[in-house]
Every structure is written in C-alpha cells, then in structure tokens.
Amino acid sequence: MKGTGDDEERMTLTRVRDLLLIAVVAGLALWILIRYNYGAFPSLPWPAGVSLYVLAVFELITGFIVRARVAGRDIGRARGQLHPIAVARVMVLAKASAILGAIAAGGWTGVLVFLLDNGLLDAARADRPAAIVGAVGGVLLAAAAVWLEHCCRAPDDPDSESDASDPAPA
User: Fold this and answer.
1) Which of 13-17, 43-47, 117-121 has the lowest mean pLDDT?
2) 166 in a domain, yes or no?
3) Which of 71, 85, 116, 133 is at 20 to 30 A from 9, Cα to Cα?
C-alpha cells in the first residue's frame, strides 16, 4: 500500500493541454451531434453565450481581489482577512470554470465549423453570430479561470516562477 504524502493530495494547477484536449473532444462531439440533427434544433440566439462573458468578468474581478490579498499576506482567520478555506473554494471554482470554458469553446467551435461548411443554408448563416459569441466566451472564461487559479497560489508555492529563477543546487 502506498503512503499518502502531501504531494499526492496536493491540488495542482490546470494544464492548458488538458483544456485543449477537453475542447477538442467537445468540439468533435458537438460537430457530430449537430451534423446529424441540425434540422431538429431551434435557431441559436446570439445571447446564448453571453453568460460565459459574465462569468469571465466575475472571475477576473475575483482574481484581482485574491491576488492583492495573497500578495499582501492578508490570508488568515482574523477578522478582515481572507480565510484560507475561501481561497481553496475560489481555486475549485476556477478549476471548474476552466473546464466549463474549454467545453463551451470546443462545443461552440464545433457548431461554428458545421455552420461555416453549410454556407448555403440561410439558417446556418443566421446561427453563425451565436456560435462566434459562444466560442469566444468559452475561450475568455477558460483564460480567466486559469488566471484566477494562478492568483490563488501562495507566494512560497514551490511551483511559482520565483523558484524557477533560482539556480539549482549542484
């Protein structure tokens, strides 16, 4: 039986390559779904992806707040400080939002690829703005979430860039 060390239970940052893989899988799945069922779907309203922009802005604002608190070492249990559990919750929110953003970006891109291939259909041309809004919103949400995760790191985190500039012991 393996021992449970701190490294095994430590939450790591979301890797961009994982998000790209999720986006590709979602894009292929939605492209297949819409290719065979496009006539069964209602037209796509352009505000469908706007909620992704709202979430991205919320996460950017939260990132600035958390980053300022972490930089000022204003994390703790005292009144007026940001509780460590709150930072952990924000980190989990950021991880979930990064995955949601990747799924949305990939899915909307899959829909957009289908719509661009079917340029002769009036319905396909009318649905393109919604697909563009959704795809861009997904990318923005994923980027904001990855940045929010970055803001939640402790200054003495071994993965931080400051350690990368230190020379390795010989």
Assistant:
1) 117-121
2) no
3) 71
